[in-house]
Amino acid sequence: MSTTTTEVLPETTLLRFATAGSVDDGKSTLVGRLLHDSKSVLTDQLEAVERVSASRGQEGPDLALLTDGLRAEREQGITIDVAYRYFATPRRRFILADTPGHVQYTRNMVTGASTAELTVVLVDARNGVVEQTRRHAAIAALLRVPHVVLAVNKMDLVGYAEPVFAAIAEEFTAYATELGVPEVTAVPISALAGDNVVEPSANMDWYGGPTVLEHLETVPVSHDLAHCHARLPVQYVIRPQSAEHRDYRGYAGQIAAGTFRVGEDVTVLPSGRTTRIAGIDLLGEPVDAAWTTQSVTVLLEDDIDVSRGDLIVPTEDAPATTQDVEATVCHVADAPLTVGHRVLLKHGTRTVKAVVKDIPSRLTLDDLSLHPHPGQLVANDIGRVKIRTAEPLPVDSYADSRRTGSFILIDPADGTTLTAGMVGESFASPEPVKDETDDGWEF
Amino acid sequence: MTAVVTVEEGTHSPYALSHLDALESEAVHIFREVAGEFENPVILFSGGKDSIVMLHLALKAFAPAPVPFSLLHVDTGHNFAEVLEYRDRVVAAHGLRLHVASVQDYIDRGVLKERPDGTRNPLQTLPLTERIQSERFDAVFGGGRRDEEKARAKERVFSLRDEFSQWDPRRQRPELWNLYNGRHAPGEHVRVFPLSNWTELDVWQYIAREGIELPQIYFAHRREVFRRGGMWLTAGEWGGPKDAETVELRQVRYRTVGDMSCTGAVDSDATTLDDVIAEIAASRLTERGATRADDKLSEAAMEDRKREGYF
């Protein structure tokens, strides 16, 4: 479909992506340029930035002020928290999770990556792959972000030299592939000069790939997930009890993965009761089939007990239920997580009591080494955890399903979100993807 | 050289949701999470386009059952008559329950004082937070969008407020995947923003797609306005024009709907939804920059108001 700007804005697809980069890699400049060149920085915002920059005696507008929204961030000149930015081109809408790069903000990178389908990792061409780059790649791999873009920035400062780019791209791709990142796209850029960000560079005719924006516009989004194991966490039971809909009893939820069809045999977990889908309403309209990530209401043939927290799955493709969950976690709270800690575990729409039975290891992101039995995990730590739940849970491996393989731990005393959890092995297998139409990744 | 990039149907697979479908589905998921986890939620409803879209999404989320929430309007006493009329009509049409917290009542009782600049937007915070406490609302839906303002860009979808309704940006819970944490202590509540990821254009495109009716002040019409602080304000008993200000009859429309004292109109010929969408797509100003005086008070005006309990 060809889209022109004269049409009144067609519906497009949505890409959620995250940026990761160290303090001086030029992340703000890249974000600023993407926003600016896609017309997403409007005059009054730019004027506000120029006014503040000038009052501080800075020469040009400091584009970081566009994203650093809190007083404390502006005072300290650093990004503390994830900021979400929005921009659009005629081809696609973008939600950018702009995450801080410091190691002490690992939890914010994890937060940004949890909903991202793509991560842009920035590298300074003069420094090449550094510890921080490995950390960003490891988080993208851990969170199973399906697409990774390596933006080799500041090419203008290395004479736009192809060998510099090629060496960095090769080293990074090898490292990322080893971690199981399924796809790396490397782009040589100068965010400052504008090379290969939005416009192709006149300085690097040796580069034949897409610009950063072209890649963002054309990378496939989560549609393959329609072919994964189907999962519907029941959020809410809809019972109108009106004269018109006296017998209506619908199970509302957002399809976490896969496709459901009317007439399909389904099982309700954890009870294990089976029935058949009698109908699917897509926000008030009956449909024959629905898929991830549509919010639907499912009607079942038999009047069985189903409530919030249950998981509806195809009978022939039901996950096992377990009370012993092994996972890789990122601890996001200031107070540590310790063995014996009593917590609440939220998985899908179900929240259950749980206890931390063991913390077998802590992971050092810099070199991916494992430290056995650290005793506790403190803020920003990533580690392996064994958890016993009070009730059986139908968990998938995070590698199979980012939605039904993830959970959070909550402090039952004050409701603090303690920990982000991913069920199963930490890093994906580096084996090459077999089927190009189904890369096994999940959003 | 130019990279060879083929844009094919691959990016528009039959299973890929359009951006509006994706945003709609996410918002519906948020409404249903709140319905499932909270005792007494309420939707803030001003009669502005964002809260109108919010209500439309809530109606779809629970269809064919009614929306399991009541509505709350903070009436500044300086609201547009067309908007109040719209509000009451919508409430009646859907059989909803409406709570009204009145700023004028607080001024009449001497609890709040009129500000010298006449704006009543900051005065909304106390009636809002007191009503939340007295009705024991534990979840309060707001139509705030992260694209509106840089402090709002930092806001969580589920945003915990203490017993004084205060927002502490440093104490925010990380929000991972779509696993929203609604835990709160008695007296605390959670502000919930189902439109967090929507932009102004998304809202207008959705309104056009769904055929949602809006108050007429969103479309170009002739109106008596006067210039103050670089904005066209509606003349009226609320406090304008003053001595040196003169009334003009202009063709204008509103991009946001708030208190008459601080919401400016823009010159416009846009009389249809398509016109409005084209106008916004071409605009070089954000809606708040164009039409909201209260956000210009200081660089952190919104953050400061949100800390105090504003939505």
Automatic annotation (TrEMBL), chain A:
The keyword Metal-binding does not apply. It comes from the Bacteria. InterPro entries: CysN_GTP-bd, CysN_II, CysN_NoDQ_III, G_TR_CS, GTP-eEF1A_C, P-loop_NTPase, SO4_adenylTrfase_lsu, T_Tr_GTP-bd_dom. It comes from Streptomyces dangxiongensis. PANTHER family: TRANSLATION FACTOR. Its EC number is 2.7.7.4. Keywords: ATP-binding, GTP-binding, Nucleotide-binding, Nucleotidyltransferase, Transferase. GO terms for biological process: sulfur compound metabolic process. GO terms for molecular function: ATP binding; GTP binding; GTPase activity; sulfate adenylyltransferase (ATP) activity. This is sulfate adenylyltransferase. Residues 12-224 form the Tr-type G domain. The keyword Membrane does not apply.
From TrEMBL, chain B:
Transmembrane segments: none annotated. Keywords: ATP-binding, Nucleotide-binding, Nucleotidyltransferase, Transferase. It is an enzyme of class 2 (transferase). InterPro entries: PAPS_reduct_dom (IPR002500), Rossmann-like_a/b/a_fold (IPR014729), SO4_adenylTrfase_ssu (IPR011784), Sulfate_adenylyltrnsfr_sub2 (IPR050128). GO terms for molecular function: ATP binding; sulfate adenylyltransferase (ATP) activity. Its EC number is 2.7.7.4. One of its GO terms (biological process) is sulfate assimilation. It comes from the Bacteria. Residues 292-311 are annotated as: Disordered. Residues 40-264 form the Phosphoadenosine phosphosulphate reductase domain. Belongs to the PAPS reductase family. CysD subfamily. This is Sulfate adenylyltransferase subunit 2. It comes from Streptomyces dangxiongensis. The gene is cysD.
